[in-house]
Amino acid sequence: MNKIHTLPQWRQDTPGIKDLIHLNNAGAALMPRQVIEAIQQHIHLEAVNGGYESADLRRADIEKVYASLATLLNTKASNIALTANATDAYSRALSSIPFETGDVILTTDNDYVSNYIAFISMQKRYGVKVERMQQDGATPDLAALPAQMEKLRPKLVSVTHVPTNSGLVQPAAEIGKIVKAHGAWYLLDACQSAGQMPLDVKELHCDFLSATFRKFLRGPRGMGFLYVSDEALAAGLEPLFPDLAGAEWTEIGQYKPRPDARRFEDWEFAYALVLGSGACVDYALEIGLEPIKAQVSALADYTREILAELPGASVLDQGEDPCGIVTVHFAGQAPLFLRDRLRERKINTSHLTRNAALIDFGQKSVDAALRVSPHYYNTKEEIDTLAEHLAELLK
Prior knowledge:
about 40% helix, 17 strands, 4-stranded antiparallel sheet
C-alpha cells in the first residue's frame, strides 16, 4: 500500500483536470483513469460476451470489491453490502429496525435532508417520534447525551458524520460509545466522510454505516455501500423488502435471509460500476486515508482563508477541525448565480439552499450558500484562480 505519494501522480491519473478546475468533490469527484478503465473494460466484455456471462467471468474480481471495502472500514467482507447509492443503503438499514408506535429516533441538528424526510415519513406512517440531541455549540452535547438517552430510550440513533451543508465533522465515535452503552441501534451516514478521512467501524461503534463511491472516494455514480455489524446480523435485522439475492424462498409462505450483510442487497447490479467502485477504493487505499485527510484539510483551510477575504463573504463552517467542505455566504449575492457563472469559466462548485439544511441555515440566518469542496488532487493555484474569478463576479 501507499505506493502513490505525489500530487503530480494524482493529477496525471486524473484526465478531467486538463481543461477544468473541479471543486465539487462533495457532489461527485473526478474519477482517476484506473476507475475509468475498469468500467470501460467491463462494458466491452459485456458487449462481446453477454451481461450474465461477463459477471460470472469476473466473479473473483467482484468478490475483491467486498474485501477492499472491508479493508477501508476495518471489518470483514461478510459485513459489506453493495447498493445502488448511499440513500438506498441508508433506507435499507432504516427499514430493518423493528419500529413500533411511540419508538424514538434520536438524531442531530445536522442530519442529511433525505434522512430527515425519511424520519418524517416514518413519523406519519408508523407513529415514531423524532428527537434531536442537545447541542454544545456546533456539535451534540456529549456530556448531556447519556441523560438524554436514559430519558428518551431511543430505538435508533442516527448521525450524519459530515453534513452536506458544512465542513463540520460530528464526534461520531464518541456518540457511538454512548449509544451502545444504552442499547440503541446506531446508524451512521458517512456519505461525505468516506474517502476523505479514515473510517474504522470498530472505533465508530456503529451498527450500520452507509456511504457512496461518487464523492470523495472518486468512484462512479450509481453505486453505494452499507456496513452491517455482526450484532445487527445476529439480531436478525433485515431490509423491509428483501429479494432473491438477500433471501432464499424455502417454502410457499416462508423465506430464509442470507447470514451475511448481503441480505441487504438486490440481485441486479451494473457490474461495470461495481468493478469501477472497487478500483476507486483500491486507489484510495494505495494513497492512504491519513495522507488524503491531511491534504484535503490543508486545501480546505486555505480555501476558507482565501474566500473569507472576498467582499461580503461569511464562511459558515463550524467545529474544531472542519473538513473538506467549505461553505460561504456572500451578502447580496445568489450562490446559484455564482455557481453558474463559475461553471461557464470551467470552475465547478455547488450551491445549497435553505431546504437542504433548515435547522443549520436557520441558526446561521442564511438562505443559501456556495459550497466549495477541494480534494487531494486539487492545488492552491486552483483555489487562487477560484478566488480571482469570484472577486470579478462580486464587483
